[in-house]
Amino acid sequence: MSPRRPERRSEESANAVIRAAMELCQEVGYRKLSIEGIAARAGVGKNTIYRWWPSKAAVLLDGLLSTWRVDASFPDTGDFAADIKAQMTAAARLLGDPDVLPHYRALIGEAQHDPELHQALWDRFIGHLAGAAVERIKAAQRAGQIRADADPVLVTELLYGAAYYRMLLTPRAVDAGHVSAVIDLALAGLAPSQG
What is the pLDDT averaged over residues 66-84? Predict the structure, then answer.
């Protein structure tokens, strides 16, 4: 799922569509969100929306990406545990925002049935963060802070998987305490051998 289609002529109308989609999704939920409703709220025809986006999910993804200010870089203070805790806590704060979380959950749910959206979420958002995490893990391995034989992709999945499990499948929030506990527990098993 590519970003908005290039033949879009009116940035003002496109912004109105995105704003309408975000507002309506907040008001009625993703399941009741419709292209017709977005078009009516934005004051454009639904054919205009379909010229620019293939689906309501694509509009919502653009809306989230336009409001998120996600820094994919990881700090490197020399303390891997502190650095990853800081980055994961910041990500949890952003994604756990009550104005963001319902939209993000809806997109993740929709992506399970829409391969194009699934790929777009990876290409345009999650993949950048995961790649940055992998690079920070490799730096920690080079510095002897975690086991050199641990697969950095698997470590990323281990650490972030716990946060996504809590965010998507439980009523509990991902907060600094949760992030810290997960990382401390994981790093105990990732510590380099003392021998």
Answer: 82
